[in-house]
Amino acid sequence: MLLQFSIHYQTSWGQQVFVQTNNPRHPLVELAPAGAGWWKGNLDLAKLPADFRYNYLVKDQQGNVVEELAYPRSLKGLKGHSVILDDTWRSRQDPEAALLASAFEEVVFKQTRAVKSTTLKPARGKVMVQLQLLQVRVPSHLELVVLGNTEALGKWVPAKALRLSNTAYPLWQGKLQARPGDELAYKYALRDPKKKTIVSWEVGPDRVFEVPLGSDVVVKTDANFDNAAPSWKGAGVAMPVFSLRTATSYGCGEFTDIKKLVDWAKLVGMSMVQILPVNDTIATYSWIDSYPYAAISVFALHPLYLNLDGLEKTINKAALDKKRATLNALPEVDYEAVLTDKLAYARQVYQEVKATFETGSAYQKFFAENEHWLRPYAAFSYLRDENKTANFNEWTTQQVYDEAAIRALTAPKSKAYGAIAFYYYLQFHLDQQLVAASEYARSQGVVLKGDIPIGIYRYSADAWVAPDLYNMDGQAGAPPDDFATEGQNWGFPTYDWAEMAKNDYLWWRQRFTQLSRYFDAFRIDHILGFFRIWETPIDQVEGIMGRFNPALPITINEFYQNGIYFDFDRFCRPYITPEIVREIFGAEAPEVIATFLQPFHDRLQLLPAYATQRQIQALLTPKQQHLQKGLFTLVSNVLFFSEEGSQGGRFHPRIDLQKTWSFRFLDGYTQGQLTHLYNDYFYRRQEDFWREKGMTKLPAMKAATNMLICGEDLGMVPACVPEVMKDLGILSLEIQRMPKNPKTEFLQARDIPYWSVCSPSTHDMSPLRLWWEEETPERRERFCHRELGWWGEAPQTCIPELAEAIIRQHLRWPAMWIVFPWQDMLAMDGDLRHPDPATERINIPAIIPHYWRYRMHLTMEELLAADSYNHKLREMLAETGRVQ
Q1: How many whole angstroms separate alpha carbon 748 and alpha carbon 787?
Q2: In the chain, how many domains are there?
Q3: What integer is the mean pLDDT of 462-473?
Q4: CB–CB of 520/110 below 8 Å?
Q5: Does residue 819 fall inside a structural domain?
Q6: Is 779 a member of any domain?
Q7: Which of 189, 246, 269, 773 is close enough to 877 for a disulfide, judged by CB 3.0 to 4.6 Å?
Q8: Which pLDDT score, from 0 to 100, does residue 123 have?
Q9: Residue 110 belongs to what domain range?
Q10: What's the Cα-to-Cα distance from 814 to each of 136, 231, 752, 811, 822, rounded to whole Å?
């Protein structure tokens, strides 16, 4: 079969257009310029492969590549001796490109009717022309048709239009016969299949195509449907699963409760339910494990969310219901009590069914598909229980993962098998329950959006099984901001990306595959970590002692080139003087000097036993605990960190070095020159370097899934990040009180990209009402005057009218998605909302560890029955075009 490629692309000097195929013998086909921006070329195949796919790309002489949208064209089932492929470049920047995701293809615009293409017999003197269009945004109750100037195209009569097939959705295809040289004038349109009337024509001039000579088949691929309607917009609700409350919950939300949240979302016209991570975090069996971002397995689900009624048997129902009622009446989650009860009850049921449980076909299928993580996870959980710790370094055996030994330990004949298989049992039921909730959401046209943490728990099954994938001496976190002035140290090991790249990021691809089992969209927590991560050394505690990794350092020669005499001790060691100690510790300064410090040149230094924050944390007595913060401040009073292995030749500036006492004690000239180096380091030199790092990893992640990807890109955002995210079709996160434009106090509509998710707050912030009370009167007044156009004195509390104004403002914004925390939406109803705004906060990032235990004060049944509120909310969504 002779394939004749033809595409229009206006190149710049030195650029060349290629066809990239999945055929190993012809991976790249060079096209030749054919004038007026057209590029053409041929590929002669003895036989068309069963699933031949291709796309176009452009290269320049420097090796730079411009790629199309990552959605290859397919010639599956195409017949003919010679085929002309008249294609249109699929731009990655097209606003509709982000709809090419399962969130839209399988949920919002899921096609419920199969439309098959007509079968055409060969006709003498005519060629078969296949018109096709990539289009997600077709409501399931409508069909896509082509109307045009020929009989085959209906002569512009709607009832006679060529109906396109959706069997390859989102690709729509229609076949007709035409003579070479015929000029086809046509338009695509959305038609009511019952009335045969046009609901929406595409805008713009008619498409014109002259049927070419020299083939028996022509495939004409058009660009997107030119929709007259505004860009698609939706709304959603954000709620952690543990925060859900139904009449039948067992002290916390469960996977089965998601269905009622979906019901409510659909009732008010929302099309997304967003949750926090739901992976197993059981490391200590205490409330500390309530932190959902510290999973002991990125694949396993948390037993906390198990619905006990979904197990095979009910044991002592009266006692079960009594405990359920007691825990469900609590205002917050009692993590330890709920988990203890659920595990104990599940073990009782397991003991009664274990003889037959593993013979079930559903379980056997689940085990076969998930064995790569399930077996080591179950072994890890068993060993954690036996050793009373998740820290595998402290286990009596199996400190180092050995696959053969673990296979022996998990073999059915092993003495430990019963205890290990219990975790298979738990994960099977958790999987079944979350899959059921996910399928229910899809059936209701509601997208279930998950959350993927950037890190892993230091003592997790993942770190135990493959420690080479992680930098165990590093701790992931975030630099200082208004919410955590000393930075954040999450304690997670950072990734060894070079090691992960050796198998094409298999661990990440498996992780995304697992997520897609439950979700059609997901939030990448701290997507900035794919460009660079904030890494704090293992011997330090506060995030302020970290730096970006990777990062291009400042060399020692740069100091001299900038007229700075480099003094290692002055710049790279804590600068401590009696004056600084007195300023920090006041009257206790003499005792601090005598206990923790010693003379060093003309100043002081910490004793070797207290040289790091981790040492201080470990050695302080209970009576000395109040000194910890001040001692930490002394440790962090440095200007630069020496890069390990550089032998004093490369350095990284401490974040916010201008705020240190060390900086204040420098002369003005040195301060100015160091500030110049600092600004270059953080705001200029890294951009291209970090862009390359992001583009090395994220495309592989993107290619591994068809889920809609949303990136949490808050904080100190390099300029390259939004560019890369846009190029890859990853949605950004926009928060009203955290504008990315440094010239604005609050987020402005003009700064919001369409490819984004907007929200008044996140789980790491004070909810809307609490935020308002925490703000200064001056800032509250500026917000009312400038953002809402309200005049007069600003209310001291977030009255319902104020909350409603903020909700309406968000709904009018240009973002694709507006996702509201449930607490923020309820703030506009004075009767339904909780009397105390402080109870609605989920997490305080500056407090580690923090108890994640917030629960909604209403039941989902009560919320579903709140007719007046629900009707009002639905009307608000409808007024702004966000009702689905």
Answers
A1: 8
A2: 2
A3: 96
A4: no
A5: no
A6: no
A7: 269
A8: 81
A9: 2-222
A10: 20, 9, 7, 8, 21
What type of residue sits at position 245? R
Backbone angles phi, psi at 498, to 5 degrees: -65, -40
pLDDT classification of 184: cutoffs 50, 70, 90: very high
Report if residue 644 sits inside a domain: yes
Is 86 inside any structural domain?
Answer: yes
Whose structure tokens read 């001040």?
630
**Number of helical (H) and strand (E) elements in the chain, helices listed first:** 26, 37
pLDDT at 70: 83
Average pLDDT for residues 367-384, to the nearest whole number? 98
In 3D space, the residue among 405, 539, 505, 529 whose CA is nearest the CA of residue 465 turns out to be 405
Of the candidates 819, 617, 828, 667, the one whose C-alpha atom is nearest the C-alpha of residue 736 is 819
Q: In which residue are the tokens 């990853």 written?
A: 730
Q: Closest Cα to residue 108, out of 227, 14, 20, 236?
A: 236
Which residues are paired to 53 by β-bridges?
74
Where does a domain end: 667, 683, 699? 683
Identify the CATH number of the domain in which residue 111 sits.
2.60.40.10
Q: What confidence tier does 117 reach under pLDDT thresholds 50, 70, 90?
A: confident
Q: Would you state the pLDDT for residue 223?
A: 86
Beta-bridged to residue 228, according to DSSP, are none
* Angle at alpha carbon of residue 627, lines to 625 and 632, rounded to 5°: 105
Residue 118 has pLDDT above 80, yes or no: no
Residue that is written with structure tokens 């919002």 in the block: 108
Q: Are 725 and 756 in contact (CB under 8 A)?
A: no
User: Given this model, what pLDDT does residue 121 score?
Assistant: 78
pTM above 0.85, yes or no: yes
Looking at 640, 665, 683, which one is the last position of a domain? 683
| Strand pairing category for 521-524 and 640-642 | unpaired
